[in-house]
Amino acid sequence: DEGYLTLQPITTWKFRKGSDVDWARLTYDDSDWTVLDSASIYELDYDEDGKFECWFRFQFSLDSGFKEHPYYVVSRNFAAQNLYLDGELAHSFGRMSTDSSTFKINRRLPAYLSLHPNKTYQLAVHFSDEVGSLTQRFVSFNLMGDKSFLWLMTPTRFSSLNKDLRAQQIKRSLLLVAAGVITSLFWLIWALNRKQQNLLMI
C-alpha cells in the first residue's frame, strides 16, 4: 500500500520462546536462536493455559532512496508487543502481564520512530499473547503468518490515517447520540401513552 513499507518476512527473523528482557540488548549474541520456516510459524501455538510468549530479533535498514524524516511503526498483530530499537525500548503495543485481568491487546495504532537512511538497526520484539480457555476450546487461532506483522508508515500516511480515525470516532459519537435520542423518545412516547390510557380508564 502507498505510504507503507512492510519489513522483511518472519522467516528471516531470529526466534526464541521465553521472556528474558536481556534478549533486547543490542550486543546480545543470538547466533544459536532458531530461524523459522513458514510451516514452523503456522504451527506455533498457545500452551495449555492459553498463553504464548517469545522474542524475535532481526536487523533492517532503509536505503538512500528514502527521505530522512521520522517514520511510524504499526503492528497488525493483536498480541501485546514491546519493541526495542538498538537495545532501547521504542514502544509498547498493548500491555504485557502475567495477570490476565491487566493484560491488554495491541490496538494497532501507529507509534513514532526516528529512522535514518543508510543505517542498520537492530530490532528486538518481545511478543506475548493469550486466549481464554473457553475461546481456545471452540476456536482455532493462528498466532501469525510468515509475513511481517510490522509495517513502517510515512508521516503523510500517518496524517491520513489520523483523519480517518477522527472521522470514524465522530461517526461513532453521532451514532451513540442518535441511539440515545431514539431511546429517550421511545420511553417518552411509552410514558405518554401510559398516562393517556390511565386517563381514559378514569
Q: How do the strands line up in the largest sheet?
A: 3-2-4-9-6-7
In angstroms, what is the radius of gyration? 24 Å
Major sheet description = 6 strands, antiparallel
**Count, helices:** 3
List the uncertain runs: 133-139
Report mean pLDDT, rounded to a whole number. Answer: 82
**Given the C-alpha coordinates, what overall shape results?**
elongated
Beta content comes to 25-35%
Through-space gap between termini: 70 Å
In sequence order, what are the helices and strands, one letter per element? EEEHEEEEEEHEH
- What proportion of the residues is helical, as a percent range? 25-40%
This entry's quaternary arrangement is single chain
Q: What is the structural class? A: alpha+beta
Number of strand elements: 10
Would you write up a description of this structure?
A hairpin with a 2-residue loop joins β6 and β7. Residues 133-139 have low confidence and may be disordered. Strands 3-2-4-9-6-7 form a 6-stranded antiparallel β-sheet, with no helix packed on it. The chain starts with a strand and ends with a helix. The protein has 3 helices and 10 strands. 29% of the residues lie in helices and 27% in strands. The radius of gyration is 24 Å and the shape is elongated. The relative contact order is 0.20. The protein has 202 residues and is an alpha+beta fold.
